[in-house]
Structures are given as C-alpha cells and as structure tokens.
Write a structure and sequence with these properties.
globular; 3-stranded antiparallel beta sheet; alpha/beta; about 40% helix; 12 helices; about 400 residues; binds pyridoxal-5'-phosphate
C-alpha cells in the first residue's frame, strides 16, 4: 500500500533545537558523555519551580470542580492577577486577557485570528522558530527582519519600515530575545511604536523572558509606550517562574478599542473552540504574579555568574566573538570559520559531546555563522564544555575535517 502522505505544509516546519538531539543521541549511544548546552528549560538544570506555586496547584486540584474545564479565557483570579501585572508594567489600556497552554498557544491563536493566506508578518531574525512554524501552517509569509549584531542585536526600525507592504499584518518583537539574550532599549522600542503606528500594524510583544534580566537592568513593555498601539503582549509561567512543563501562558490585548474589537472577537472564537488551558495549573498564576519573588533574585544571581563565566571563556577562544547577553539565558556567539555552522555543531557534538544549536536553525544574516548555547548548566559543566569547544575550534581553524 502507498505510504500516507503528510501535508505539504509540514515540509516547512523546522525545529533545530530538537534536530541536534538526533546527533547527540547517536553520540550517546556510542558511549560519549554529553554536555547539554542546548535546552531552554531551566528545570533540566539546577533550577526548580518555587514551592508556593506547587502548593497552589495541589490546592487547586483538591476542589473537584477545578479539575473540570475552566472558562475559555481562564479563571477570573488569574486574569485579575494578569491585569494587575499589566498595570505594574504600565499597560493600562487593556482590552482583553486570555490564559493559554503556554505562551505558544497564545501566539498561535493570535496569529491565526489575524492573518489570511498571502499576508506577511515581520519576524526577528535570528528568532524563536515557533513563529515560522505557525506561519507555515497558516500559509502566511515569514518575512525576516535582521537584528543588528553590531548594535547589541537591536532591531533597526528604519530597515523594518522598508519591509512593510500592504499585506503586512504584524511585527513580532521578542524582548528579551531568544536566541541572542539581548534586551531592547526604550529608545529602540519607541522607534518600533512609531513605525507600527505609521503603518497600522499589530505588535506581538513576546516578553516571556522579561523577569530574567541581569546587571540590574529594567524591562520596558512596548505596550506601555502608547495607548494607541494595537498590541498583544505574551508571557507565562515557563521561564520567569520556572514552570515550563505546566504549560501556562497568556496574552494581554491592548490598544484602541474601536480598532481592536473585531480582532478580539475573532481571538475569542478560537479560544472557545479549544475549550481551555489546564484548569488546576491556572491556580498558580495569581500567587506567582502577586507573591514573593525571592527565588527569582537567587536564580538571576546564579544566571549572571554563569553568563560572566561563559563570556570570559568564549573571549579566550580564537575565531569566536560574542555580544554579552543581558536577558534570558541564551547567548549567540559568532563563528568566524570556513564552512557551515551546522557542520561545525554536528562535528562538535560527535567529537566532544558538547551539545549546542547551529545559528542557521534560528535564521541569521546571510553569510554569518553562529551557534546558540544556554548558560543554565552549573559552572563545572560550563568550564568543561568551553575547554572542549576551545580544543575543537582550534582543530577546525587548522583545517581538520570532522
Ligand atoms: N517565546 C519564546 C521567545 C521562547 O523562547 C519560548 C520557549 O522557549 C516560548 C515563547 C514558548 O513559551 P511557552 O513555554 O510559554 O509556550
């Protein structure tokens, strides 16, 4: 019998973060010790979900009704807490709030409710691959705008404006960014606001890493900069509250009501069609946002030490340069090498066991080569990993083939 043919749209789905695992698993099966610097999941390292959030979920489950479906937009106590959090971040013109299965589902629904086939969405490149996967599913064009490595990986509003045409529906902003770990200045955000208002496009502000900042920096939500900006801000418990497996995220819609009303109605149709996010897990949202954040200070201090160690070790390796990350837990060093970054990464994994992800998996300016690593592992693992990267890189630069 003929093999069952998958949809052609599936050919457009790439997820490099998981793809490198195939090479890693093959190395592991040969008995190689692996050093995982590829996983954006703090709970795979020495970071755990705060106890008061675990308690809130257990308590939620004790009431039988809480194990049934919740309202499609989420439970009221959670939505109220998200509204308070929006207010603390200066987002006062909130039109709607909806709780989803991770920020991922909020992003999916928001794009699905906005775009028709043939439209295009401006996406940060390098960026998080979920956006290209969803857009491929919708037959919507992923139109990259390149982040400027020489300018701390900031977006360039003038360059972005040149990409806009009459089918452009939205611009995605990931701040702090995955994979570069950069945080955008208020001035950069103001330029994007101006540009979005001039061209009547929606801003999708992915702020899932907004709590994970280093060097005492403060985060500015782009939605707080203009009451008139049509914007959806995405966040959740996955990163800042160290609970990615709970799959709790949300979207905050803000902007001018008259212009956003039909779009908000469309979003709610999709929310109802998929019933709801996990009900008991939603009981962690209010204690997370309104509760104590001591755990966060400890996590950030640990991250900053590991960031500093990584940047120092990298600066000693020939043919690698790096922009110091100030947010999230990613770094995106540039490789000044002959050959492709994907081959470099596969060679690295096979010969040293150090698992990182090739830059081409996140999109990058043509002609440049990078890799992404996470600085979540403990200092000992990072030290060993960078020593191995150093040895590998020197051999690569000397022309050795892997
Ligand atoms: N947005 C960005 C930029 C991410 O890096 C991730 C996960 O790595 C997500 C969204 C997904 O978040 P969630 O776990 O809430 O679905």
């Amino acid at each position: 019998m003929e093999p069952i043919q998958p949809a052609t749209r599936s050919h457009e789905i790439f997820y490099a973060v998981r793809d490198v695992l195939l090479v890693a698993n093959e190395a592991k099966s040969r008995g190689m010790k692996l050093y995982y610097l590829n996983i954006g999941d703090p709970n795979q390292y020495d970071f755990d979900t705060p106890q008061h959030l675990k308690d809130a979920v257990s308590k939620g489950m004790e009431t039988w009704a809480h194990n049934g479906y919740s309202p499609s937009s989420g439970i009221e106590t959670a939505r109220d807490a998200i509204r308070r959090e929006a207010h603390r971040k200066g987002i006062d013109n909130v039109l709607d709030i909806f709780v989803t299965s991770g920020a991922s589902e909020a992003i999916d629904i928001s794009l699905t409710a906005l775009c028709n086939p043939g439209d295009n969405v401006l996406c940060p490149t390098p960026g998080y691959p979920l956006y290209s996967a969803i857009l491929a599913k919708l037959n919507v064009e992923y139109r990259p705008y390149y982040l400027v490595e020489e300018n701390n990986w900031a977006p360039d509003a003038n360059e972005i404006a040149k990409l806009i045409d009459d089918r452009t529906r939205a611009i995605v902003l990931i701040n702090p960014n995955n994979p570069t770990g950069s945080l955008y200045s208020r001035q950069t955000l103001e330029r994007i606001v101006e540009m979005a208002l001039d061209h009547n496009i929606v801003v999708f502000a992915d702020e899932i890493y907004d709590k994970l900042l280093m060097d005492g920096l403060q985060h500015t939500s782009i939605a707080s900069l203009s009451q008139n900006l049509p914007c959806i801000t995405f966040n959740g418990l996955s990163k800042g509250y160290i609970a990615p497996g709970w799959r709790i995220g949300w979207g905050i819609v803000s902007g001018p009501e008259a212009r956003m009303k039909d779009y908000v109605d469309a979003i709610n149709k999709f929310l109802r069609a998929r019933l709801c996010a996990s009900h008991p897990m939603q009981f962690a949202i209010a204690p997370a946002l309104d509760g104590q954040h001591d755990f966060l200070e400890a996590a950030k201090a640990k991250l900053q030490r590991r960031r500093d160690l990584s940047v120092k070790k990298l600066s000693e390796i020939p043919g690698i340069t790096v922009v110091k990350p100030t947010g999230a837990f990613y770094s995106f060093p540039q490789l000044h090498i002959e050959g492709e970054d994907e081959d470099w990464v596969k060679g690295l994994i096979r010969t040293t066991g150090v698992v990182v992800v090739h830059g081409s998996g996140f999109g990058q300016k043509p002609g440049t080569k990078h890799f992404r690593f996470v600085f979540l592992p403990d200092e000992e693992t990072l030290n060993t990993a960078f020593t191995l990267i150093d040895q590998f890189q020197r051999q690569w630069l000397a022309g050795k083939k892997f």
